[in-house]
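wait is this the right file?? whatever heres the structure
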């Protein structure tokens, strides 16, 4: 699962397509700007991959600003892996989560 694939100068970008076994991509990263997150969401959709979220927090203020929401309850790492591989998850911002 490529993390922040379109982050300026360090992301894998479109090269993510070339990786074998990919089923998901980090499509919302709280430390990235929208012009870095949007292409990741488009890539996930185009490739049929799940989108995940990550806070990538470097400061306390950034904690929890982006996360992965799951359709089913997860309690173990195996549950998380299973749900991501089955594409039963999505990247969610803190604002989106608060609206629910």
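ok assuming it is, sequence goes like this
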């Amino acid at each position: 699962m490529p993390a922040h694939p379109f982050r300026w100068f360090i992301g894998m970008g479109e090269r993510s397509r070339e990786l074998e076994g990919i089923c998901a991509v980090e499509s919302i990263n709280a430390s990235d700007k929208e012009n870095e997150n949007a292409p990741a969401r488009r890539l996930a959709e185009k490739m049929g991959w799940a989108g995940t979220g990550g806070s990538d927090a470097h400061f306390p203020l950034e904690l929890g600003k982006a996360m992965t929401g799951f359709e089913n309850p997860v309690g173990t790492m195996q549950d998380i892996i299973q749900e991501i591989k089955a594409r039963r998850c999505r990247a969610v911002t803190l604002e989106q989560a608060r609206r629910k």
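The chain has a mean pLDDT of 94. so i think its the right one actually
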